[in-house]
From TrEMBL:
Reaction catalysed by this enzyme: L-threonyl-[protein] + ATP = O-phospho-L-threonyl-[protein] + ADP + H(+); L-seryl-[protein] + ATP = O-phospho-L-seryl-[protein] + ADP + H(+)
Keyword Nucleotide-binding: yes
Protein name: cAMP-dependent protein kinase
EC primary class: transferase
Classification of source organism: Eukaryota, Metazoa, Ecdysozoa, Arthropoda, Hexapoda
Domain Protein kinase: 40-295
Highest taxon above the source species: Eukaryota
Entry's family note: Belongs to the protein kinase superfamily.
Enzyme Commission number: 2.7.11.11
InterPro entries referenced in this protein's UniProt entry, alphabetically: AGC-kinase_C (IPR000961), Kinase-like_dom_sf (IPR011009), Prot_kinase_dom (IPR000719), Protein_kinase_ATP_BS (IPR017441), Ser/Thr_kinase_AS (IPR008271)
Length: 357
C-alpha cells in the first residue's frame, strides 16, 4: 500500500470510529415523528411498487424538494414487512455518510408510513448503465470507490447491507452516488444471520447454501457490481433460478476480453466462494480492495470530499427535473380514512420493532 493510501486509511478509520460513537449514542434514543403529510406539496410520482410509491414533493416549511416514500400500513402488515420497515427507518435516522441516502423525517398517519429523503434527480445507476451499455473502467472505479467507502461505513457500525444492485444506487446531479433502499440492512455486529434475501444475480454462495453469513455477502456483491458496471451484464446469469444458483456456488464466470489485467485480478480475489480467501474479509479487511492495483490512481480522499469531477454527469435542468424517472404527470389521489384499522396492532408492533432495533 502506497503512502498516500495509507494516510487515507488511517484518517478514514479515525472518522469511522467517531461515526460509530455517534451512531451508538443515537441508536438507543427514542425515534420520534418529525413531520406530517400536510407538510408536503405532492408534485409527481417517481415510482411505485408492491411497497407503495415514491413521490417527488416540496416541503412547505423550507421550500426544498425531497423524495417521499409512502407505504400503506395495510400492505406493510400484510406482507410482513413491519420489522424491516421499522429497522429501515431507525437505521436511516442515525446514518450520516456522503454516499448513503439520508432521511430528513418520517411520519405515520391513518393510512401511510412516510419516509422523507433527499432527492437524487440523476435517477438510478441501472438507468445509466442501460443507456451507456457499460461504463469504462475509470468511471467504474469512481463509482466503486464510493460504494466501497459506504460499505466500510456500514460494516464499521455493525450493519450488513445485503441488497446491492444498480437499481439501488442513485446518482445525483453532480454525478456522485447515494446507496439507497435500506430495507434489508441488519445490525448484526459480529454475529451471523441466515435470512435468504437480496437479488438472485447478486446473492453470495453462502446465502444460497444457508451457511450463515455476515459482511462477507456485501464484498461478494461488490465484486458482482464491479463486473456488471464494466461489462454491462452480471457475471452469473441463467433464466432458471436453480441453474443461476449452481453457477454462483461454482464461482465460475468469464470476463469480457476488454477487461484489463488488473480488473480481472481484482475480481478473481473478490468473487471467491471460499470466504477465508475473499478480499474484504482477510487480515487487512477493505484495505486489500482499496490497495489493489486496479485502484492505483484513485484518490479516495478527493472522492470522499467530492472534489473529483466525474467523467459522466446526468443531464438535468433543475432540482425538480425527473427525466431519469418513470414519472407520472397525472394527478394522484392519496387515500384517506376516518379511522385507522391498524392503529393498535401497528403502533404497538412498530414501537416494539424500533425499541428492539
Amino acid at each position: 500500500m502506497d503512502e498516500k493510501l495509507q494516510k487515507h486509511c488511517t484518517t478514514f478509520d479515525q472518522s469511522l470510529r467517531r461515526s460509530k460513537r455517534e451512531f451508538e449514542a443515537k441508536f438507543s434514543q427514542e425515534l420520534k415523528q418529525n413531520c406530517t403529510m400536510d407538510d408536503f406539496d405532492m408534485l409527481r410520482v417517481l415510482g411505485s411498487g408492491s411497497f407503495g410509491m415514491v413521490v417527488l414533493c416540496r416541503d412547505k416549511r423550507n421550500n426544498k424538494t425531497y423524495a417521499l416514500k409512502l407505504m400503506e400500513k395495510g400492505n406493510v402488515i400484510k406482507t410482513k414487512q413491519l420489522v424491516h420497515t421499522a429497522a429501515e427507518i431507525k437505521l436511516m435516522k442515525n446514518l450520516n455518510f456522503p454516499f448513503i441516502v439520508d432521511m430528513h423525517g418520517f411520519f405515520m398517519d391513518k393510512v401511510y408510513v412516510g419516509i422523507c429523503m433527499s432527492f437524487a434527480n440523476g435517477g438510478d445507476m441501472f438507468t445509466h448503465l442501460r443507456d451507456l451499455k457499460k461504463f469504462d473502467e475509470p468511471l467504474a472505479k469512481f463509482y466503486a470507490a464510493q460504494v466501497i467507502m459506504a460499505f466500510e461505513y456500514f460494516h464499521f457500525l455493525g450493519v450488513v447491507y445485503r441488497d446491492l444492485k444498480p437499481e439501488n444506487i442513485l446518482v445525483d446531479s453532480q454525478g456522485y452516488l447515494k446507496v439507497t433502499d435500506l430495507g434489508f440492512c441488519k445490525k448484526i455486529d459480529n454475529a451471523r444471520t441466515y435470512t435468504l434475501c437480496g437479488t438472485p444475480e447478486y446473492l453470495a454462495p453462502e446465502i444460497i447454501l444457508s451457511q450463515g453469513y455476515n459482511k462477507s455477502v456485501d464484498w461478494w456483491s461488490m465484486g458482482v457490481l464491479i463486473f456488471e458496471m464494466a461489462a454491462g451484464y452480471a457475471p452469473f446469469y441463467a433464466r432458471d433460478p436453480m441453474k443461476l444458483y449452481e453457477k454462483i456456488v461454482s464461482g465460475k464466470y468469464t470476463c469480457p476480453v476488454h477487461f484489463s489485467k488488473a480488473l480481472k485480478d481484482l475480481l478473481s480475489n473478490m468473487l471467491v466462494v471460499d470466504r477465508s480467501k475473499r478480499y474484504g474479509l482477510l487480515k487487512n479487511g477493505s484495505k486489500d480492495v482499496k490497495g489493489h492495483e486496479w485502484f492505483k490512481n484513485v484518490d479516495f480522499d478527493q472522492i470522499l470530499a467530492k472534489r473529483v469531477i466525474p467523467s459522466y454527469q446526468p443531464k438535468v435542468d433543475s432540482e425538480t427535473d425527473t427525466r431519469y424517472f418513470d414519472t407520472s404527470e397525472k394527478m394522484f389521489e392519496l387515500k384517506k380514512l376516518s379511522t385507522d384499522p391498524y392503529e393498535t396492532d401497528f403502533n404497538q408492533m412498530f414501537t416494539q420493532s424500533i425499541q428492539n432495533g
